[in-house]
Amino acid sequence: MTLIDQAPEYPISNQKIYTTKEIRVGTFLGGPLVAGYLLAENFKAFNEPGKAKNAWIFSILFTVILFSSIFLIPASNKFPEIVLPLIYSWIAYGLAQHYQGASISSYINSGEIAFSWWRLVGISLLGCAVTVVLLFGVIYFSGDNLTAASQTKIYGVMKNEIAFDKKNVSENEVDGIADGLTKCTFFDIAVKKYVYVKKVGTNYEISISCSKDVTASPDNLTAFVQLRNSMQKLYPQNKVIINLVVDDLDNVVKRLE
Prior knowledge:
Strand content: 5-15%
Strand order of the largest sheet: 1-2-3-4-5-6
Distance between the termini: 51 Å
Number of helices: 7
Number of domains: 2
Helix content: 40-55%
Low-confidence stretches: 1-12
Structural class: alpha/beta
Mean pLDDT: 83
Oligomer: single chain
Order of helices and strands: HHHHHEEHEEHEE
């Protein structure tokens, strides 16, 4: 599908349109769905409803792909929030310039006028609100699915926590790991510990929440190396892997195996 093949040399309706600059700013403020709306409105003004429909389809698909990609990016690789709006707003500008630039110029030069900036801001804010609602809906339902499959158990007087996926590892296995962590004196009565357990094949991966300076020196890792070795002795038939994580399970700063 193509949005437009050749721009008309003269205005073909008396409707107002959005300039390429307005499309760029509106997309930055409101997101890719707003880009679809602005491009579609222009195509309607040019009496090309089929291409207006295509603009909506592309913007919706782009939005779905964009949000799906965001959730797949590890926390350690996140970049400043302003980067994505800058990228897709310039993409929208490039598309508008390529597919509508000549038509917009012809339209304006023939005496027609563009929509006001106030209207653009209002539409952008409305589009932003719709996008935020959709995004929170995805997060909410994803969270429900995650919660349904995950569980946290508490151990010892310090109420140490072990989180795990019930579909991945059984409660009996988690209880056994908690018992091992207690025998290895990791679960003590001094500091509350937070652990996530995952089973990969026959391997047990134990992710432990740590401070940012855990890899500052080899001495900081000595206790965790000893812990892994001690846990391995308790599980001779299963490989034990310890992931040291900071702030997020995806942010693994050291893997001990």
